[in-house]
Specification:
Elements lengths: L15 H8 L3 H4 L7 H7 L5 H5 L9 H6 L3 H8 L2 H6 L4 H13 L5 H18 L3 H14 L1
Length: about 150
């Protein structure tokens, strides 16, 4: 998501030396009162105000609601009304279309359900519906990992 929105996203806490150091710390220095990163918070307290250190984790959300009313509208409508989707039988097509209609009408934010439904169907098309010859390289790669 960071790169898709031209944001610089780094994971400095995943440096292998820092990870090795952290996993070798005693648990009391890693977690205190149910909160992780105790030592990091203690060190950061020198430079950061308490409200920053006490702030809960915050995810990086995608604007799904707007996307389904905009650039993903046609794709969602096409996929959810397709014969392949109807015949797959994993999700009730009428319920899926009703979710899309409710969302487009602004009656309810169904973006998460739509995203999961669309993702599942597109995954099925990419991996379950592939011809055996197209899936063969994937099988060889999986076998080499095992």
């Amino acid at each position: 998501m960071a790169m898709a929105n031209s944001l610089e996203g780094r994971s400095p806490l995943l440096d292998h030396r820092l990870v090795e150091f952290a996993v070798n710390l005693p648990p009391s220095m890693r977690v205190r009162e149910g909160r992780g990163k105790h030592l990091l918070r203690k060190v950061a307290a020198r430079w950061l105000p308490p409200d920053v250190l006490a702030k809960p984790k915050q995810g990086f959300g995608m604007p799904l609601a707007q996307w389904f009313r905009g650039p993903l509208r046609e794709l969602a409508a096409d996929v959810l009304s397709s014969r392949v989707f109807r015949e797959r039988g994993l999700i009730d097509p009428a319920a899926a279309r009703a979710c899309l209609e409710q969302h487009l009408a602004g009656a309810a934010d169904m973006s998460e359900v739509l995203w999961l439904t669309l993702s599942l169907e597109l995954w099925c098309r990419g991996y379950l519906d592939r011809a055996p010859s197209a899936a063969a390289p994937l099988s060889r790669a999986a076998a080499s990992v095992a």
